[in-house]
Amino acid sequence: MRSFGGLGATSWTAAGPPLSAAQIGQLTADRPVPADPPRPIGEEDLPLLRALAEDGRATHTRLAELTGWSTPRVARRLAALEAAGSLSYDVDVLPELLGYELNATLWLQVDLARLHRVGEELGGHGECAFAAAISGRHNLMAVVICRDTPDFYRYLTTRLALVEGIAGYEISVRVRRLKQSASLVHRGRLIHPGLA
What we know:
By secondary structure, this protein is an alpha+beta fold. The protein contains 6 helices and 8 strands, in the order E-H-H-H-H-E-H-E-E-H-E-E-E-E. The longest helix has 13 residues, at 71-83.
């Protein structure tokens, strides 16, 4: 029914501390500040967006081939869409390659009066990759990523146990991950679903 933190706002960060404001400033100093709210996308950009949907990692040269545009036009349109706040990027990382082997789904029963606060709190945990309000007996679902079983046990008994309003839970530990966000996992690598 509702995810907590918004798209990209509650990214999984257990692999390390998030960047400081100064570090972000260094990385984005030469970039325009995106418009807020984002400007609408026009018809003329649909070929570029279709090409990006096919492969978001494509080079400007490859995007030019797919759209029939020149490489400089592709670069200009990408920069304009970024500046308009209409285009942003997300990085999909396979946690196992960073040493995070345990992935679990938590189904939580939360008092309705505390549902939003609990969802926001869980969404802010570094171990939590995703949190959302759902329907049914369990009204909050969270995906948690940890290094191993002892790390997961520590999370359950320290961080999660301190969250007030959780009345019950069920846990499902994933033995093998087959997909993640918009990617499939194939031989230990993330691949585009169309390449499987």
